[in-house]
Amino acid sequence: MAEIPLKFMEWLVESRRTFLKRIMRGEPLTYFSAHLPTVATWSEGEFPVNLTAKGIGLIPKEDRIGFFTGLFERVLEEVKDIPWSESLGRRADALFELYSDVGNFDPSVLGGLEIFGGRTLENIRKNKRASILFAGLKEENGKVSYISFQINAKVEIVGKDDERYRFLLLARKLFEFDRFHLYQPDYPFGYIFRVEEVIDKSPWSRAERGA
């Protein structure tokens, strides 16, 4: 098993912090590339590769996941009788606490929820491997650059009694009814992607390297 390099972990965390800040400011929404990578799975036939954009997120370390699961449960209970729009600050604070430290997360795993039970689920049941491609922008010191990396992973399907599923579900429910989500009544399974290989695919200028 491998680990996601720190520079990519930091991008995944900071992108979520930036997204939350934009929501809080009421800014127009943009495509959330750090959360919606392209996921490839395999079947058989002339065109065996299935590609989909799927919500994929970081998973807290084993000794911290219980704390954040409990935090999300408490916040959802606190805001259940408050108009959804008025509870945004409290819900966002919970995620800001999660994303306050890249050290909260296990760099060897990613997770996501299954919604539709379609080709991705069918493929993973037969071949428990997937490749995930992240591609987006990185802002640093006022400069913007491109970032891209591929994660090759072995996949574990987890049910509703799994603590990692509960974490993924509660993180989703914190923003279930906000405008950037399509409401879904149920999520039958979760996926845990165990990192086997990370390939840096960030573009670079051949001119700057003298090529």
Count of the domains: 1
Reading side by side through the largest sheet, how are the strands ordered? 2-1-5-6-7-4-3
Q: Give the ordered list of helices and strands.
A: HEEEHHEHEEHE
Number of strands: 7
- The parts where pLDDT drops under 50 for at least 5 residues are none
Assembly context of the chains: single chain
Question: What is the CATH superfamily classification?
Answer: Electron Transport, Fmn-binding Protein, Chain A
Q: What is the CATH topology assignment? A: Pnp Oxidase, Chain A
CATH architecture: Roll
Average pLDDT confidence is 92
Strand content: 25-35%
The description of the largest β-sheet is: 7 strands, antiparallel
Number of helices: 5
Please tell me about this protein's structure.
This protein is an alpha+beta fold. The protein has a single domain, classed as Roll (Pnp Oxidase, Chain A), CATH 2.30.110.10. It contains five helices and seven strands, in the order αβββααβαββαβ. It has helices at residues 6-24, 65-79, 88-98, 119-126, 163-173, and strands at residues 38-42, 49-53, 57-60, 105-114, 129-140, 143-158, 189-200. Strands 2-1-5-6-7-4-3 form a seven-stranded antiparallel sheet. α2 runs antiparallel to α3 (88-98) and α2 (65-79) packs parallel to α5. It is globular. The mean pLDDT is 92.
